[in-house]
Sequence to fold (119 residues):
Amino acid sequence: MPDDIDPIPLPANPQTVAELLPHLPLPYAYAKQYACVFSAELADRLTAVQAENPAQFRVTPLALTDGTFMIRGAILSEVPNGLYGGNFARLDASRFDEIALVPWADAVALLPQPDPIEP
Fold:
């Protein structure tokens, strides 16, 4: 069986990162459809873990207008053993059910918009 075929079918509408743990790393084409959306508390924890391991690859959580934060779901194609595996392993997996998977377009719609420039 080729390595890129997951023997367990991927969920059609996953709600949290916890649901996808048995499938990691995800195929990039599947992962990029989503944003990982989480609380400010989890954003702070992610930032702290990355600060403890500065040589590791890192991501920057983006603030959304509803007070949550997001990172690209594509990161899930690089964990647990890829580019972001080191810091991913340092996160508390028991909290992955607090990381919502939101369709990419829906999450992007929550990014702050710049003030329009007046002529």
